[in-house]
Write a structure and sequence with these properties.
The structure holds 2 protein chains of 2 kinds. Chain A contains 11 helices and 14 strands. By secondary structure, chain A is α/β, with parallel strands linked by helices. Chain A folds into 2 domains: 215 residues, Rossmann fold (3-Layer(aba) Sandwich), CATH 3.40.50.300; 69 residues, ACT domain (Alpha-Beta Plaits). Chain A has a 6-stranded mixed beta sheet with strand order 6-7-8-3-9-10, with helices on both faces. In chain A, helix 3 packs across helix 4 and helix 3 packs parallel to helix 5. By secondary structure, chain B is mainly α. Chain B has one domain. In chain B, helix 3 crosses helix 7, helix 8 runs antiparallel to helix 11 and helix 8 packs parallel to helix 12. The two termini of chain B are 34 Å apart. Classes of the chains: A alpha/beta, B mainly alpha. The interface between A and B is large, with 49 and 38 residues.
């Protein structure tokens, strides 16, 4: 189990992470969902003992990361957002050296594991190609493969499918799920809604260095006001008469970002004609209307007040 | 990769991982990068040969006040090259910090102090591997054949390399601006190599250089190496100076490393 207890990290005058409290259960996939700069990477690097927290406490399987950094590091493997690989080495050498540093496998076992993981992600034929000559997607695969081959107790993936094509994304998700099924606790930082929703057992929404909400994707969606979302695009530069909509008892909340208006409501099908009529009567030009079930994106918008771009 | 073929790595499984093995792995990583670029060794060796057989030959003919300048210069050149190559590890570490590769290395299960020792050791061995062909040329040329003398000289060179890598790492983790880092390291390299007895004797130096030269680690190494190769008694002072140099800068490198990098300076 991993515990963050009011953890904070300050860089100069900037609070990258503030009063962050959260528990990650064993053998779950936790999705850390948040925009760039939300503090996801800082959280993971504090947990991985690269940065020391400036306040609060972080423990990994009962061990404090500040007082027992070496023991904590033995349990963790981190795949970074931007591949951190020696450009002069080939994929095989990168992974082989990583396993030499992080496992006690003998040469045969190590090379066998490297071969299996490289074959699985279709990089075996390019195993000796220097990584700085590889495409962004190939380099990203090599980065993810470090942790997939290491198979640590706690596996951390930062944007694991960035730069990957669709088949490779699906494959990576499958391999991450297998890692969880074999007993690893997996943390996936992402700013992709579908990745967080489809891969995670639970999702933690992080914004401005703070934990905003944490639950299963279904629970998060269920908790969102109304259960339905009406998306309106209105004329540019128009002031939106919010009170026109909040007068309806079915409308739970209204959120506006530029010309995009998001209405959280229940009974949307019956209410939609009334809403359109009311707004039209108030002179609001409606360019488009879209009624849908709540998605994780709506949850994020609802909690943070802005979209995850 | 399926559950039937792999196991999750347990922390207890890793507890048997000896620290010395990890230090050696860190060192091997730095050495491996050298062998990936063998043309650098070849080109620098050729440059050294040209320097020796053109420049040193020419100058030794011109220097009349100091007979035997050629062997003096030849040994000193090897010492200078060791110092110069050992400085490279600092550039590597600075670049790794800028590129984020250092963050990755810091997640590996190796204690920080051993990490620094591994990096310094790797840098030092790399400098030795790089210099051995040049040292061999000088040894053949000057007919240095006593194995004990050669061994003592190699030890001197290695201690110098180990200390300079510590110094270089200290600078790399202390200076944050890339431009300032380049300038500081270049000046430092110039100071320890040029204000030393590696390439010219103390008696011929201008007074302001002669005042500094006795304290340069390159002087310790150059004097000690020449003493070893000439078969005279062991240069205890030079060796002690080199050992102190190694201890001070490895310690400083590790201390700065803890304070600066783990505070998230490069974030």
């Amino acid at each position: 189990m991993i515990g963050f207890d009011k953890a904070g990290k300050r860089f100069g005058t900037l609070d990258a992470v503030k009063e962050f409290s959260m528990t990650i259960h064993d053998k779950e996939i936790l999705g850390l969902l948040g925009p760039n700069g939300a503090g996801k990477t800082t959280l993971m690097l504090m947990m991985g003992t690269v940065y020391r927290p400036t306040s609060g406490k972080i423990s990994v399987n009962g061990l404090d990361v500040v007082h027992h950094p070496n023991d904590v590091r033995k349990m963790i493997g981190i795949a970074f957002q931007d591949p951190r690989v020696d450009g002069i080495l080939g994929a095989f050498d990168v992974l082989n050296w990583h396993l030499k540093m992080t496992t006690n496998l003998d040469k045969v076992e190590r090379e066998d594991r490297v071969e299996k993981v490289l074959r699985a992600v279709d990089l075996w034929d390019a195993r000796n190609k220097r990584t700085w000559l590889m495409s962004g997607g190939m380099r990203k695969k090599v980065e993810d493969c470090k942790v997939l081959a290491q198979r640590p107790k706690i596996a951390v993936f930062d944007e694991p499918t960035a730069f990957l094509d669709v088949p490779s994304r699906l494959l990576m998700w499958k391999m991450i799920r297998e890692l969880r099924d074999e007993g690893s606790t997996v943390i996936v930082a992402t700013n992709m809604m579908d990745e967080a929703e489809r891969l995670s057992d639970r999702v933690a929404i992080v914004n401005l260095g703070k934990l905003v909400a944490i639950d299963t994707p279904e629970q998060l969606k269920g908790k969102t006001k109304g259960g339905e979302v009406l998306e309106l695009t209105v004329g540019n530069g128009q002031e939106f008469p919010r009170e026109c909509l909040t007068q309806f008892s079915e409308v739970q909340d209204v959120n506006q970002e530029n010309n995009k208006v998001t209405v959280y409501l229940s009974g949307g099908r019956l209410l939609l004609p009334k809403i359109v009529e009311t707004l039209t009567n108030r002179g609001v030009k409606i360019d488009s209307v879209h009624l849908k079930e709540v998605t994780l994106e709506d949850v994020f918008l609802n909690y943070t007040g802005h979209r995850l771009e | 990769m399926s559950s039937s073929t792999t196991q999750v790595t347990d922390s207890s499984e890793l507890s048997g991982q000896s620290t010395s093995r990890l230090v050696l792995q860190m060192a091997r990583r730095d050495i491996a990068t050298l062998f990936r670029t063998p043309w650098i060794i070849i080109s620098r060796s050729l440059a050294f040969i040209i320097q020796l057989f053109v420049f040193a030959y020419l100058i030794s003919g011109l220097v009349v006040k100091f007979p035997g300048f050629f062997p003096y210069y030849a040994v000193g050149s090897v010492v200078s090259v060791v110092a110069s190559i050992s400085f490279i590890i600092g550039y590597d570490i600075f670049e790794e910090a800028e590129e984020g590769l250092l963050d990755y290395l810091l997640t590996l299960p190796i204690p920080r102090r051993e990490f620094i020792i591994g990096r310094a050791l790797g840098g030092a061995i790399r400098a030795m591997i790089y210099t051995i062909p040049m040292f061999a040329i000088v040894a053949v040329l000057e007919n240095f054949s006593n194995p004990l003398s050669l061994l003592a000289a190699v030890l001197d060179l290695f201690l110098l390399a180990f200390g300079v890598t510590g110094l270089s790492i200290t600078v790399a983790v202390s200076v944050r601006s890339a431009n300032r880092f380049d300038v500081v390291l270049a000046l430092l390299e110039l100071a320890v190599s040029r204000a030393s007895t590696a390439l010219y004797p103390l008696a011929f130096m201008p007074s302001y250089v002669a005042a500094l030269a006795p304290f340069s680690p390159v002087t310790f190494a150059a004097d000690s190496t020449r003493a070893a190769l000439s078969g005279s008694s062991l240069d205890i002072l030079g060796l002690a100076g080199l050992l102190a140099f190694v201890a001070i800068f490895l310690g400083l490198g590790a201390t700065f490393y803890f304070r600066r990098l783990e505070g998230g300076v490069y974030a």
